[in-house]
Design brief:
This protein has 399 residues and is α/β, with parallel strands linked by helices. It has helices at residues 2-11, 18-29, 37-48, 55-66, 78-84, 107-120, 161-167, 181-188, 207-216, 249-261, 295-301, 318-322, 337-347, 369-377, 385-396; strands at residues 133-134, 140-142, 150-151, 196-197, 204-205, 225-226, 229-230, 233-240, 265-273, 280-282, 292-294, 307-311, 351-355, 379-382.
Length: 399
């Protein structure tokens, strides 16, 4: 049974080695999951997951595989199910002494005891620690406080594994999720590596070296300084606006805010386009007719050492990219969008395309033709944390 769980985990993106899987099996054989679904969840996450960024993947895999594991309600008499399917009772005045648990009981033993209660029980019970009921310390029922029991109907009183999974607490830790403004800001800090050191005295505190030196100095503080960096990164940011990019407008705004809040760029120029870069770039996201600059003007007044980041979904009809009259919103000036993009790429040697809908190898579909062709001009990456890091690494490469 558990071999299938391994395949589900791998399907959801978890990289689990056979050594880790064998360790997990050994832990189960030693009873370290305590015969409970919660224990199984936490044990599996501890052994099989290497980094917090994979917690969400494990949650999804665990829920997909185990969500249907339950006690069959068809095996429980209707009279018991009737009183279990009701609102929880007020337990504020119950005797807390009834909450005594045996978390070491084996699962088979728990199931045997459950079958005994089913045959013996004739009436409703709440707040106790023996019968099938609600809100007590019993190992059977729901809304109680027994971490090692069998839940029947209702909701658990403790935070079970499936509650943890349902809250998706760890989805923000994923490296492949689309970004918010905080993650944009963190990722853009990598561009500081473009900065050059000035030939000036060492006046800037080097925190990492200070920590190392202090530790090596027996805990006595030893400050370390370095030469200040000069902001030398010049960035040209181009956004696709309107149409199919509307669902991503908030995310693009976050990226815009993150760039302009950063203090490690020497210069930032931001322009806009619709679907494809043609002979004009718009000055604002409204992309109004006439409110633009010529691409030729940009070429003449922008150094070739600007780093270019284009943000768009590359979703356009092939004629919009290849036809010399493909720009239905403005002038084409004698060239197709494909030709204008080739000129842009030849001007700026460091240029990447971030795509919130990136399909990668799925280029055989007819409507993916434009994306596939643009990906041949630019290095195209998904607009995720991993994609942005890979793109920035490409911008930082010496060639």
């Amino acid at each position: 049974m558990f071999t299938d769980f391994l395949y589900v985990c791998r399907e959801k993106g978890l990289k689990i080695s056979m050594t880790e899987w064998i360790t997990f099996m050994e832990a189960l054989n030693k009873g370290l999951a305590h015969s409970s679904i919660d224990g199984l969840y936490y044990l599996g996450r501890m052994i099989l997951v290497k980094t917090e960024s994979d917690y969400d993947k494990f949650d999804i895999a665990f829920k997909a595989y185990f969500q249907n594991v339950h006690i069959g309600e068809d095996e429980i008499p209707e009279i018991i199910m009737n009183f279990l399917d009701k609102e929880e009772m007020d337990t504020s005045n119950l005797n807390k002494d009834v909450y005594s648990f045996d978390t070491t009981r084996e699962l088979e033993e728990t199931k045997r005891m459950f079958r005994e209660r089913v045959t013996e029980q004739k009436e409703e019970h709440n707040g106790g620690n023996y019968w099938i009921g609600t809100s007590g310390g019993s190992a059977f029922g729901h809304s109680g406080r027994n971490p090692g029991g069998l839940r029947v109907s209702g909701k658990t009183g403790m935070q079970s594994a499936f509650q943890v999974i349902g809250e998706r607490k760890y989805q923000d830790f994923r490296h492949d999720k689309t970004l918010d403004i905080r993650q944009f800001q963190v990722a853009f800090r990598r561009l500081r590596q473009f900065s050059t050191k000035l030939e000036v005295p060492r006046t800037e505190l080097d925190l990492d070296k200070t920590i190392d030196s202090t530790c090596n100095n027996g805990g006595y503080l030893q400050l370390e300084f370095d030469k200040p960096r000069k902001n030398s990164v010049k960035l040209l940011l181009l956004f696709d606006c309107g149409g199919t990019m509307m669902p991503f407008s908030e995310m693009c705004n976050d990226l815009f805010q993150a760039v302009h809040k950063a203090n490690h760029f020497k210069d930032v120029k931001t322009y806009y386009f619709h679907n494809c870069v043609y002979s004009k770039l718009y000055k604002d996201a409204e992309c109004e007719y006439g409110n633009w600059i010529d691409l030729d003007y940009l070429f003449r007044h922008t150094d070739k050492d600007y780093k270019v980041i284009i943000v768009g979904d590359a979703q356009m009809a092939p004629e919009e990219l290849f036809d010399k009259n493909g720009n239905y919103r403005g002038p084409n000036d004698g060239k197709s969008g494909y030709e204008w993009n080739k000129l842009l790429r030849s001007k700026f040697k460091k240029a990447i395309w971030l795509n919130p809908r990136y399909h990668g190898s799925l280029t055989s579909l007819a409507w993916m033709e434009s994306e596939a062709e643009l990906a041949k001009i630019y290095d195209m990456y998904p607009l995720t944390l991993d994609g942005l890091k890979a793109g920035i690494t490409k911008l930082m490469a010496p060639r």
